[in-house]
Specification:
It is a single chain. β1 and β2 form a beta hairpin. The chain starts with about 20 loop residues before the first helix and ends in a 5-residue tail after the last helix. The mean pLDDT is about 80. A two-stranded antiparallel sheet has the order 1-2. By secondary structure, it is mainly α.
Amino acid sequence: KPCKDCPFRADLPSHLKGWLGKPRAEQISIDVLKHGANFPCHKTTTHSNKGDENRSGYLYTEKESQCAGAAIMQIKADNPSQWMQIASRLGMAYELGLDQLELNSPVFDTPENFIKFHTLED
């Protein structure tokens, strides 16, 4: 299930409204919910604040886990990620834990609601 502060949760506390910002929420929506990209859990990634243009942001290694909230939202939107589709076709859904996702978890129902929550109102 999604962690308590997963950006895909629809029941996030009001003080987190606008957390991602509209541009980032829109980009995630396009990449993850439209194009079916993988989205790692923020608790399993490493962030670099180095000034090097090629190394700033999230650094991906073999230790990342798929974000449960993103995966659930992808399934609800009938657009599972590419790795979920491949795992299902190869009969590996059980090994990857896809059958253990709590699909009734409180995640946003639509990309529009996801973006709206993460947009600061003027």
